[in-house]
Amino acid sequence: MANPLYDALFGAHAGKDTVFLHLPDGGTLTHGAFVAMAAQFAHVIADAGLEPGDRLAVQIEKSPQALAVYAACAQTGVIFLPLNTAYTASEVDYFLGNSGAKLMLCDGAMRPALAEIADRHGAALMVLNGDGTGGFAQRAALSPEVFETVDRTPGDMAAFLYTSGTTGRSKGAMLTQENLLSNAHVLAEAWRFTGDDVLLHALPIFHTHGLFVATNIALLSGAALIFLPKFDLDQVIARLPEATTMMGVPTFYTRLLEDARFDQALTRHMRLFVSGSAPLLSETHRAFEDRTGHRILERYGMTETNMNCSNPYEGDRRAGTVGMPLPGVEAKVCDAEGAELPRGEIGTLEVRGPNVFKGYWQMPEKTAEELRADGFFITGDLAKQGEDGYVTIVGRGKDLIISGGYNIYPKEVELALDDQPGVQESAVVGAPHPDFGESVVAVIVPEPGAQIDLDAVKAQVAEGLARFKQPRHYAVAEALPRNTMGKVQKNVLREEFKSVFVG
Ligand code: MLC
Ligand code: AMP
Prior knowledge:
Elements: H1 4-9, E1 19-22, E2 28-30, H2 31-47, E3 55-59, H3 64-76, E4 79-82, H4 89-99, E5 103-106, H5 111-120, E6 124-127, H6 135-141, E7 157-163, E8 171-176, H7 177-190, E9 198-201, H8 208-221, E10 224-227, H9 233-239, E11 245-248, H10 250-257, H11 264-267, E12 272-275, H12 282-292, E13 297-302, E14 306-310, E15 324-325, E16 330-334, E17 347-352, H13 364-370, E18 377-385, E19 391-396, E20 401-403, E21 406-408, H14 410-418, E22 423-433, E23 437-446, H15 454-464, E24 473-476, H16 490-496
Parallel strand pairs: 1-10, 3-4, 3-5, 5-6, 9-10, 9-11, 11-12, 12-13, 23-24
Antiparallel strand pairs: 1-2, 7-8, 13-14, 14-15, 16-17, 17-18, 18-19, 20-21, 22-23
The protein binds malonyl-coenzyme A and adenosine monophosphate.
Residues 163, 208, 276-279, 298, 300-303, 322, 379, 381, 393, 396, 402, 407 line the site of adenosine monophosphate (AMP).
Protein name: Acetoacetyl-CoA synthetase
InterPro entries: AMP-bd_C, AMP-bd_C_sf, AMP-binding_CS, AMP-dep_synth/lig_dom, ANL_N_sf
Family: Belongs to the ATP-dependent AMP-binding enzyme family.
């Protein structure tokens, strides 16, 4: 009997006294202690009545405990549903309702705001704080350090990761054990991970990048993580000497390059820097090599697919490209009907492979719109592929802003703005931002005769939307530019506001 994901990532390490996590205070946690903590968590989850296939939502600070919840879900066959810690209570309301989660783990500080919401959705609410305290942890401490692993097959669901959509409604991407495990195997091999590696981990663990790419690869290869709560420049620079590899969004690398301490001496011992989740500018790639002698390895992925393409470990890591489709992943540049275009032409990138998700939770129409019957997933990214196979992402067919690696769908922000008193309509676009790559611009059209109180609008928007989604520049206009079909011309707005953050 088996549970492929649990066995490969966690069970394989039971009882080992090798270091898994290097902690911010200089302490360590062994693989064996981590697996034992996860087993205690598994008992609490099972005792709470959750059965395989049930959902467990988690909104807690990055910590060894938060990661152990993922392991405990794998061991109990419960579907892991991590949520951005920046989400407001009203955002969490939607996720709990949509997913039908039976249990939610939250920070003690969020409990008052979430109690009624969880109750309304019939979810139990338990506290697990970032420092490892709380009712959930107390119960776990009284539980045995071994748990009988629940049998699972590769096709069973392991996690739901919510991803916003062009309609403004988030969709739960259903990821199976095989989706996660196949990608971890391919990436660990492609990027040459071994048990000797120490990965500097400053990414959040509620998204694909920090959770599945970084953590799964480390667990599969027996590598250790320097597990930092967030990207703090001083901490990252202080801990780099202990690391062999690092993964980050482009903002990590531009912030490092702005610091004179980040130089060749500090990075000489490193073997690999990986970037993804947003486009890495060619100039950042070059500046990084000039400063450190290292060529960043850029790769491309999505919540729905894990990783699809990667520059080579050995060979030409080409600035401005995302490299080639990974082994086992098919990628093709297509027209709107899905017919493959000749090499060099720009079209929509479609991907297929064991990494591609099974669909959106309880949204068969959305799934059918994006996942073709033959298994190809329509990424919504515009790309071209050279004769030599290298893929370049040239833009996005979907209306999406990526700010510091977080996705923001303009529709969701527009709906929040349109709800405000005196607002007739609004349009939200991305504009280049020196730190976040892109940031959010809102253009508001007042109702005839109305005066817009922007401070009141900002305060209201802050109630409902996570901080990273909130516009950082507001403009009031008499009308939105429209084409002859009446569609808002966002390209005109993007052009008009392209310099608001970069001066
Ligand atoms: C934080 N803020 C952001 C933000 N992150 N605003 C816009 N965009 C972001 N990404 C807010 C804070 O709330 C704060 O608000 C202000 O901006 C400045 O905060 P900061 O201290 O500078 O931010 P920091 O905590 O340093 O975070 C920035 C960051 C972080 C880039 C380090 O956002 C981050 O770790 N991003 C990684 C996201 C990620 O993992 N994406 C992977 C998705 S998976 P105020 O009001 O207090 O000033 C995926 C698939 C794939 O895409 O291919 O990998
Ligand atoms: P998410 O939905 O958060 O998983 O974000 C996925 C999106 O991030 C992709 O569809 C791309 O638009 C973008 N993305 C990820 N990696 C890269 C990259 N290396 N270059 C450009 N865009 C990227």
